[in-house]
Design brief:
Elements: H1 3-23, H2 29-40, H3 44-72, H4 74-94, H5 98-115, H6 117-128, H7 133-143, H8 146-185, H9 192-197, H10 210-240, H11 245-252, H12 255-267, H13 275-296, H14 301-327, H15 332-361, H16 366-382
Helix pairs in contact: 1-7, 1-8, 2-3, 2-8, 3-4, 3-5, 3-6, 3-15, 4-5, 4-6, 4-8, 6-14, 6-15, 7-12, 7-14, 10-11, 10-14, 10-15, 10-16, 11-14, 12-14, 13-14, 13-16, 14-15
Organism: Neoroseomonas alkaliterrae
Keywords: Membrane, Transmembrane, Transmembrane helix
GO molecular function: transmembrane transporter activity
């Protein structure tokens, strides 16, 4: 098999296993929160509170997971993540009450630290160095459909087997599909530091400046906050802006296609553009979308979703490619864990915090995310690629 074919296979495998990992973890509560809350006598908010706690644990463990990928390569770490996900899902399905349910989500938090995008990006950085950009874009194109696949699959399993059976079904997929794919079809490579040191493609080993890492962490945190906040409250925000319930749902359905469309644009037209320039374009789109919606009201709901979705789709790629362009592939995993920890924490806290603002101010709450987006654009103009 040629090198290009091997690389295409690796991207396809990671795209598939990322779709599985996202669908069975991050997107799980949206479908199962209601039946779980009903059985345990809890509110849906309590279920999502446990989920937020798992996301905070993911943020704390991210640097350690990245360090493991730096030292061992990503193949084994990703395979172990499938096992951890499976154990967490089985424990969730067996949970007799909230305490064991919370323990199950703690294990899911460990799995998410080891097995979601940042781990996959670090794996590709170790395999391909600074040439990993197109591969990172490729897996986000495939895994961009994780909610499209995951939500219906979870709903179908829950309808057939109950929420506990859905947990067992996802656990089986991790063991029978995800683990073998990650373990046997992702190439084994030397630790990234050694691979890069022995490669003529490694131009320098100058350590990144703390200021640049802090600026990038801020950019990714603002993007994570806005994406998580709107992901949780988008239909309600559109209705607050004057759209009918049906129109809000129809406009919200454009989010996924907008994200994937922007990633296709990044993969094609923008692939020769610096990741820093691409990030500036992406970060500017959300403030533009907010201005369009608040100036035009309900008739601009679809335009708002398309513009915001395009920016969000591109920023997902930026999360992997910009640290690579700014700091290089050496130590990518650990550094990625540090840089993205604030973003993961922001994603965990955003649905609740932003929900309070929406309840108090309606669509005007979007001025907060617009201001954060504008600050992110300013920060990106301070950064300079090495």
């Amino acid at each position: 098999m040629t090198a290009s074919a091997n690389r295409a296979l690796t991207v396809a495998v990671l795209g598939t296993t990322q779709t599985l990992s996202w669908g069975s973890s991050y997107y799980l509560p949206a479908i199962l929160a209601t039946p779980i809350a009903a059985e345990f006598g809890l509110s849906r908010a309590a279920i999502f509170g446990v989920f937020s706690g798992a996301l905070l644990l993911t943020a704390l463990l991210g640097p350690a997971a990245g360090r493991a990928i730096d030292s061992r390569g990503g193949r084994d770490v990703l395979a172990v993540s499938n096992a951890v996900f499976a154990i967490g899902l089985v424990l969730m399905g067996l949970a007799p009450g909230p305490l064991v349910f919370g323990l199950a989500w703690a294990l899911m938090g460990v799995g998410m630290a080891m097995g979601l995008y940042d781990a996959a990006f670090a794996t590709l950085a170790g395999l391909y160095g600074k040439d990993a950009r197109s591969s990172i874009t490729g897996i986000t194109l495939i895994a961009g459909f994780a909610s499209t696949v995951g939500w219906p699959a979870t709903a179908l399993m829950e309808a057939e087997w109950g929420w506990r059976g859905a947990c067992f079904g996802w656990a089986a997929l991790h063991l029978l599909l995800g683990l073998p794919l990650n373990r046997f079809l992702i190439p084994r490579v030397p630790p990234p530091e050694k691979a890069v040191a022995s490669s003529a493609a490694a131009p320098e080993s100058k350590p990144p400046r703390l200021r640049d890492m802090a600026l990038l962490a801020f950019v990714l945190a603002t993007a994570g906050f806005s994406a998580s906040a709107l992901g949780a409250h988008l239909p309600g925000l559109l209705q607050a802006a004057g759209a009918t319930a049906a129109a809000a749902v129809a406009a919200g359905a454009l989010l996924g296609p907008a994200q994937v469309g922007a990633r296709i644009l990044e993969f094609g037209f923008l692939r020769k553009v610096s990741p820093l320039v691409s990030a500036r374009i992406a970060a500017s789109l959300h403030p533009i979308a907010v201005a369009v919606l608040l100036a035009g009201g309900a008739p601009m709901a679809a335009a708002f979703v398309l513009i915001h979705g395009a920016g969000n789709g591109m920023l997902t790629i930026t999360r992997g490619t910009l640290p690579l362009a700014l700091f290089g592939p050496v130590g990518y995993g650990r550094r990625q864990g540090i840089i993205t920890a604030p973003a993961r924490a922001a994603q965990a806290l955003a649905p609740y915090g932003f929900g309070l603002m929406v309840d108090a101010q309606g669509a005007q709450a979007l001025w907060l995310t617009a201001a954060l987006g504008a600050a992110a654009v300013a920060a990106l103009f301070v950064l300079r690629a090495r």
